[in-house]
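Re: the pair you flagged

First of the two:
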Amino acid sequence: MGAFFPYIVILVCAGISVLIFMFLLGNVNNFADPGREHPLKGNLMGLMYKGGWLVPIILTMLLMVLVFSIERLITLMRARGRGNVSNFVRKIQFHLTNGDLDAAEAECDMQRGSVANVVKNGVRKYREMLTATDLSHEQKLLAIQKEVEESTSLELPMLQRNLPFIATIAPLGTLGGLIGTVFGMIRSFSAMGQSGAADSVALSIGISEALVNTATGITTSALAIIFYNIFSTQIDSLTYLIDEAGYSITNTFDSKQK
């Protein structure tokens, strides 16, 4: 299910966007005429409907940003575990310094989360190396370091999953808005180029398509950039804490077993 989740999200968001475009934005009550050519004055939904077929495409990207951002937020909250992660790392350092491995593992069980998972595996390997008589000191250190690195490599993909989709939508939202602007301006200039008086209906449709798609596309892109940077910063913070905890484990073992 996890591997197909992004593609399910894309299909569901696309379906919802089409329904919103057809039945909410395109509701006849948003227009002054049954042909849905003239939105009611001040009616934003009718104006958005006049943005044309690019509107549901950009709406799909907007919904994808929101869904993936909520999913990442929940995942990162679980990854942080219970309580303050920085305090957890300091407690682990304290217990390791005092040689209390049971207390360190108990802290991991209470904290949970990605950092706790890596630390717990490192502490278990620490305990295992204490009784290993067939390895040299350097080999024991390498074994602990390898355990921490392998545990970290298992946790990081889970933290970074679906971020590429948000990163991809960031430029695509702007490009979608610009395409809508170009199509809208083409329609507007075409209306102005008619012989005699300009077609005011076609002119208004073109301007609406240009402005609505531009605004929606830029909003989508801005949200994608903001959420991507927020999540990237949080992942970097968790990665740093994992590295700090791993260094504490190996450094403590090195200093106590020499």
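Second of the two:
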Amino acid sequence: MTNPWIVALSAVFLWWFSTGIILWRVKRADLGGPDDHIWSVLLGLPLLLGGVLGVHSTAGDPSVQGVYIAFLSALAIWGWIELSFLSGIVTGPVRVNCPPFAPMGERFWRAIGTILWHEMLLIAAVLVIAKISWGAENAFALWTFVILFFARISAKLNLFFGVPRIHTDFLPRPLSHLASHFRLAPMNGVFPLSITALSFASACWMERAYSATTDGSFVGYVLLSALTLLALLEHWFMVLRLPDQKLWRWLLPDAAGPKPTGHPDPTLTGRK
């Protein structure tokens, strides 16, 4: 499992599969009763617990196996937090549509209000993982989570300031109000900065992989390179006319009633 192509493809598959499973679950809950989203989050708690235990148990294990488990553990923690957000359980105090002609300042604070508790939970998770991993032989769980965290912030800023392509098909009903905080625009000043930062980070991880002296560190940096490149790709999905929603639509149940138009929150994911 040290072949760079296998490592990179593993990261791509985990990104695609984990995003698809979360989207499938929240869409199934949309079709169920009023408590289905709560049950999704509660039944997913072993994912969070397993992730924390995995980060702790691999902090001192720089082997290839330890690095893979650390990477998976970070994804597990991220996945549960995203599930809690997409289920509408951990979001923010603002749960209504933004007025269509609200001034920029009001729109900005309303947008923060839609995700405030979720962002605070993510920051808390970063601090917990940093406490466990900082200075440890295997800090790849921390760097995995940090990439996901900052890529998500970047994606949200771009959606707020405006991008050419905003798709919301995969937004679950509890988060339908989020679409009113997005903005369609030919371009914004944040997007070039996001692309530059993600491209630079990808190059840095690849350079670290090239100069790695152990199999474990090589695998870890290839995983981080692939994950950062996927975040870069998700940003380009907001600009280029690519049928990215087809990556997951085939495995989602058909929702009853009218559907919004678009694609998932691009952190991911998430995501998206």
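Residues 256-272 have pLDDT under 50 and may be disordered.

-B.
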